[in-house]
Design brief:
Layout lengths: L1 E4 L9 E7 L6 E7 L4 H15 L4 E4 L20 H8 L3 E4 L3 H4 L1 H19 L5 H19 L19 H4 L2 E6 L5 E4 L2 E5 L3 H5 L4 E6 L5 E5 L2 E3 L1 E3 H19 L8 H13 L1 H6 L1 H12 L8
Parallel strand pairs: 4-5
Antiparallel strand pairs: 1-2, 2-3, 6-9, 7-8, 8-12, 9-10, 10-11
Helix pairs in contact: 9-11
Length: 299
């Protein structure tokens, strides 16, 4: 489902092309340039595919770690990847091919795209990922007109999206954490504190779910209900900043430690260019010494 597109100094950095193709007709269904082949990149591309075409019966993929748990140490919980969990929630099957040859059509299309698409991009003067994505719809239309084949059966097996198919909810990264006695949990190396409430108290010692949205939003849920929280790191930084401002307000003003050097610079300038050059070493030494004066303590 992906193909790396090489870059060069005059054409832009390397990126990855995500490819969705209809196995029955060899028709390109969706193309999208992304920075790397990541879970969130596939979340975004697949959501666009479903919004445009509806839900297929299954996606046929390779054994990339986005689609399948490849490490024995990762076989815990339900044994599914984040992408596999999202597709299951939408009633879409995921089938991992055992070889490139098994994927057949998409591998042949990838070879064609590696050659033809790169040349078309160069002829169109496209050198950024954004311009490349804007160029892809017209390229797909021309490609499908040339190479897509008629199906044996005209019935489209894509299922229309339903109100219950909440794509924004499905395509999220989810992780479970145990809520501590102090109403804290750690996720992505950040400590979060749940706002105290009767509902939050009931979650102490229980598994809560962290829902990480592609746009950066984060929710902590217990029994499907979101709990307000604050980032302990940000709260501590605000506390330190407030304390520093309070200490600075009570501290008497200090003279600028660079003042002697600055006065010397002004005096040399008044004496003319020759005097300024003769005093330059002293001025520079004074500025260097001033730069190493320790900062005033904040507490």
């Amino acid at each position: 489902m992906a193909r790396s597109i090489g870059g060069s100094r005059d054409r832009g950095p390397q990126c990855t092309l995500l490819v969705f193709i209809d196995d029955a007709t060899s028709r390109l269904m969706h193309l999208q340039f992304v920075q790397s082949e990541s879970t969130f990149a596939y979340f975004n591309a697949t959501q666009q595919y479903l919004e445009q075409h509806g839900k297929p019966v299954a996606f046929y993929t390779d054994k990339h770690a986005v689609f399948r748990v490849n490490k024995p140490s990762g076989l815990h919980g339900d044994g599914m990847t984040q992408f596999g969990r999202a597709l299951k929630a939408l009633s879409i099957e995921i089938i991992c091919a055992n070889s490139s040859q098994a994927k057949g059509r998409v591998e042949r299309a990838n070879k064609t795209l590696q050659d033809r698409l790169v040349k078309e991009l160069r002829l169109a003067g496209v050198s950024t990922m954004e311009d490349g994505n804007a160029f892809l719809p017209s390229f797909m239309a021309d490609y499908n007109a040339r190479f897509a084949k008629a199906p044996f059966n005209d019935k489209d097996l894509h299922r229309p999206m339903q109100a219950r198919d909440r794509l924004d909810e499905a395509f999220t990264w989810r992780a479970e954490r145990t809520l501590s006695q102090s109403l804290t949990l750690q996720y992505d190396n950040i400590l979060f504190m749940i706002e105290p409430s009767e509902f939050a108290q009931a979650a102490i010692g229980r598994r809560v779910e962290v829902v990480d949205f592609p746009d950066g939003r984060l929710e902590v849920r217990y029994k499907g209900r979101s709990m307000p929280y604050r980032d302990v790191r940000q709260a501590a930084a605000r506390h330190r900043d407030g304390r520093a401002r309070e200490q600075a307000a009570r501290r008497p003003p200090h003279p600028d430690p660079r003042e002697p050097a600055l006065r010397a610079a002004g005096h040399a300038h008044q004496q003319g260019p020759k005097a300024a050059r003769s005093d330059q070493a002293y001025v520079q030494r004074g500025l260097r010494e001033a730069s190493f004066v320790p900062a005033a303590s904040c507490g």
